[in-house]
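tool_call: predict_structure(chain=1)
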Amino acid sequence: MRFGFGSKSSTPSPSEQLKHIRVLVIDDNDEFCQLIRGLLEPDRFDVVAVNSPVKALELFSQDKYGFDLILLDYFMPRLDGAKTFEWLRKLNPNIKVLICSGADELQLRQIVTQYGINGYIRKPFNINKGLDLINKVLSESTAGT
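tool_result:
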């Protein structure tokens, strides 16, 4: 906000109007959830991190159109990433999902192809490459709708 004589109007500039992007992180590793939150929140992302796929599905079912993207761990106890993904897509067929996993590259490509997931981020990852992929997936979602 600017004050003083001759200041600009209170209408935000186009850069200030950038939409905050809501991201749901589903990962049983609390440290990874905190890392993602710390990396994304300063860059126009609102991050909700949940360490249980069951709790995440409960949350998502109450707000299934309120998230722009889901970062989903593939290997989790009780409910793995594949089953979680299937439930997410039943609730919102258009939700964009990126798998986050330490699995090998070939396995991740097979998972993405088999389930029709939007892509993957291999752990550990380079933040710039991760952000590039997130932005690419999000821009595809707006271009396709």
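agent: The mean pLDDT is 84. Proceeding to next step.
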